[in-house]
């Protein structure tokens, strides 16, 4: 192998395979493995140095062995080497893959036909073409079996599943993005699922002070038309995320709840308007009109 492939070829090739292997075997998300895990860079560097050292050692061993040969054997070795090099000469390979008769020999393959002066040659099909043709037939079988027998993913299914994944990613992003909803941009939610989610947040965090039915306790009644800090989704969202007046006991929930949760619980509270709580606390604040 040393005779045919110089270090300039095989070292980068093996190195690339090494890098590819780290990429294949190590799960590194969207990044390259060696970027995600910088220690890999060191490992790969050591590997590269090792490959170079290997090349140097192999070359040295070969030199020593060559020197130990008799004159006769040396000559034979050189000749064999030359022949082998010739076999892999790209020009020879190219000629083989084309296998067309050179123009000077075309006379041998001319057919007898003569169509109004147009003659025909019986040239062989160029092997590069023939083999690509065979390869395409084999490929077609694989293709047909994958897509039409095994129901592999076609473009439309691929597109749909990617859009699906993107949609989930957007939802995920929205959940955690802090500034996506604020008191300015917030809207009242009316979907049953959102109100249900809001009710859950309410039961887990708010019930203790505002009563299970929103009738009030330590905190004010949330079901009447009176609001201390302003009604409507924007004011309520602001109160819940930033808290009530200092010292009154209503904390800023923005450090505990996500913006969507605050939006949901605020919408839930507003949906309680006009419901008749069991022990309503007397009204505080002013009647709120939009
Ligand atoms: C520790 C008790 C306590 C908890 C828990 C609590 N609140 Fe309050 N809440 C209060 C008090 C006290 C006020 C009155 C604040 C003020 O007067 O400034 C208040 C005021 C409010 C107001 C404004 C009412 C108005 O009339 O303007 C809203 C809306 C509100 N709370 C919603 C919530 C929500 C939603 C939760 C749960 C995420 C919650 N509260 C949890 C005690 C609490």
Automatic annotation (TrEMBL):
<keyword id="KW-0812">Transmembrane</keyword>
<dbReference type="GO" id="GO:0046872">
    <property type="term" value="F:metal ion binding"/>
</dbReference>
<keyword id="KW-0472">Membrane</keyword>
<feature type="domain" description="Cytochrome c">
    <location>
        <begin position="193"/>
        <end position="273"/>
    </location>
</feature>
<dbReference type="InterPro" id="IPR009056">
    <property type="entry name" value="Cyt_c-like_dom"/>
</dbReference>
<dbReference type="InterPro" id="IPR036909">
    <property type="entry name" value="Cyt_c-like_dom_sf"/>
</dbReference>
<dbReference type="GO" id="GO:0009055">
    <property type="term" value="F:electron transfer activity"/>
</dbReference>
<dbReference type="InterPro" id="IPR038414">
    <property type="entry name" value="CcoP_N_sf"/>
</dbReference>
<protein>
    <submittedName>
        <fullName>Cytochrome c oxidase subunit III</fullName>
    </submittedName>
</protein>
<keyword id="KW-0349">Heme</keyword>
<dbReference type="InterPro" id="IPR050597">
    <property type="entry name" value="Cytochrome_c_Oxidase_Subunit"/>
</dbReference>
<keyword id="KW-0479">Metal-binding</keyword>
<feature type="transmembrane region" description="Helical">
    <location>
        <begin position="7"/>
        <end position="26"/>
    </location>
</feature>
<dbReference type="Pfam" id="PF14715">
    <property type="entry name" value="FixP_N"/>
</dbReference>
<dbReference type="Pfam" id="PF13442">
    <property type="entry name" value="Cytochrome_CBB3"/>
</dbReference>
<feature type="transmembrane region" description="Helical">
    <location>
        <begin position="128"/>
        <end position="149"/>
    </location>
</feature>
<keyword id="KW-1133">Transmembrane helix</keyword>
<keyword id="KW-0408">Iron</keyword>
<dbReference type="GO" id="GO:0020037">
    <property type="term" value="F:heme binding"/>
</dbReference>
<feature type="transmembrane region" description="Helical">
    <location>
        <begin position="38"/>
        <end position="58"/>
    </location>
</feature>
<dbReference type="InterPro" id="IPR032858">
    <property type="entry name" value="CcoP_N"/>
</dbReference>
